[in-house]
Specification:
Blueprint lengths: L39 E9 L6 E8 L2 E6 L1 E5 L3 E9 L4 E9 L9 E5 L2 E3 L9 E4 L6 H5 L2 E4 L1 H4 L15 E2 L16 E2 L4 H6 L1 H7 L3 E4 L25 H14 L3 E6 L9 H8 L35 H7 L6 H4 L9 E4 L7 E2 L2 E2 L1 H15 L4 E4 L16 E2 L2 H12 L7 E2 L2 E4 L5 H12 L4 H4 L3 E3 L8 H5 L2 H13 L3 E5 L28 H15 L2 H5 L1 E8 L2 E7 L4 E7 L6 E3 L1 H4 L5 E6 L3 E4 L2 E4 L5 E7 L1
Parallel strand pairs: 10-13, 10-23, 11-12, 13-14, 14-15, 15-18, 18-19, 22-23
Antiparallel strand pairs: 1-5, 2-3, 2-6, 4-5, 6-7, 6-9, 7-8, 16-17, 20-21, 24-25, 25-26, 26-31, 27-30, 28-31, 29-30
Helix pairs in contact: 10-11, 14-15
Length: 626
Amino acid sequence: MQQSSPGAAPTTAVPTTTPSAHHDGSALYVPEGTPGLGDTVPVRVRVPRGAGVRDVWLRTVRDGEPRMSPARLDRSDEHEDWYVADVLVHNPQTGYRFFLDAPGADGTSGYRWLNGRGTWDRDVPDAADFRLTVHDPAPSWMADGVVYQVFPDRFARSGASGRRDLPGWAVPAAWDDEPHGGGPDVGTQYYGGDLAGIEERLDHLVALGVSTLYTTPVFPGRSNHRYDASTFDHVDPLLGGDEAYASLVRAAHARGLRVMGDLTTNHTGVGHEWFSRALADPGAPERDFYYWTDGDPGYVGWLEHASLPKLSYGSAELAARMIDGPGSVVGRYLREPFGIDGWRIDVANMTGRYGAEDRTLDVARTLRSTMAAINPDAALVAEHFHDATGDLAGDGWHANMNYSAFTRPVWTWLSPAGSSVPYLGLPVRTPRRGGRSVVETMRDFDAVHPWRVTASQWNMLGSHDTPRLRSIVGSRELVEVAATLLLTYPGTPVVFAGDEVGLTGLNGEHARATMPWDEPERWDIATFDLYRSLIGVRRASSALRSGGLRWVHVDDDALVYLRETPDERVLVAVARDAWPGVRLHPAVVGAAREAEHLHGGLDLSVHDGAWRLGSDGPAVGVWRLR
């Protein structure tokens, strides 16, 4: 077991971390479990002794009106005071923050607010208040594990793949052909990966250490991505059909893996059987499934794409067929013979929204109710590329694909200056920003959701819709920095198949490269070992899976934070470049006497009781404080 090294005495040039008041929704501060209406929940806050705080009060909002109540001093040591206050859960979602009575330097009256974005010496709006919710959290297996995303056409071919008749839309490609990043055939370039091929390679997932297989859609369509479904009644024969899907799920379950499906509740393909009936017969019930207009093409398409007519949940019949009840599309694939473990919902942010209509949250609640009745442990994840404020109250989507609070800020921190990689839907290349900007962005977006949502968010370094991580950061060393963030940050880590072997790609289509099973020159074994090691560290640490998040030090080129449960504390440091290093304040170290090295090459030295992080970079370090 590697311990922290004795090291040299810290120099006065090295800064020391500054502790601040802290609270989050993890078990160290809020009791585990789901409260009910009328329950009183004790919440704790830690305040450094040097912060000049005389008293702490709790501010809640009940029925729209703020209330103030004093907090009680719970315990103290030489570095910190811990306070406890009681929150009455009077509303389904109850917001609260802490009032810190802190006189000014001249002794005059002064105060600070502590909310999810940090400590403020001015008044702040309620948007970032901490939140208690009466809604059950996501199933624990989400944050406890790691998701592995597969784009079926590009993962693996079985022996049966080459014997299938191809539809007219398919443009055949050799397995080692480079995917086109643009042009008319980006959606039709066909490689022939199938479900049996995925099943044959499940041992790769087991070896990597992931726990959940998530595949993009398996329904028939007129494209390689299949987000333009022509039916939801059966699995695409090009992938092997219903039996191949059922077999894949059985084989995954036998290995202890869960399986998540992917569904487009927002639209169908123009070739969908429902849309064909709606066009053929204005009196057909399917006519009410879509939005119709007077202009060309006569109906509403998703983002004005005529190939993807948008669904209207003003139709009760559509809801019954798609999302409501065990016989719906959502319900059917959760049951035998398939028995998948949950759904990722494509463009969930747009589902049910059009013009003056906004049924998105009703759709989410119906989806969740249907799923819970069949499998209470099923997971429901939304796709949402931007600000999901208001969509994640906890009673609908369990979590979101966390582009805003994780993917985007991490990219901007690790992207080199002058990057040529497009930046997620904006008309610029990926910018380079300092660590302070990155952490402020993360906190801004995390703070508007209940902690239990943040603790389950799908964090990603890339997906089938984005450039590849290796193309963004440019080096294996920075891939390690990014992967360490991914595997140690609160939430559910998601790995896009191929990132673990160093695949590259400059946009979403170009990134959909095939897995190089028989091409060792395209397989970066060192990167695979890196991912496997970090996943193993996460699996062995309750703090990394379910602990709170306390920022310890933020430098333009380095980020340091603690993940903590009542029983474990893990220190994480990641540096994108050389930096001054930092000494850890005694309030950060607490009662720890040593640090067990878990991963990385960054130095943590101890000299005469002073703990110092080294100044190397790019470099990472993960330690268990004991």
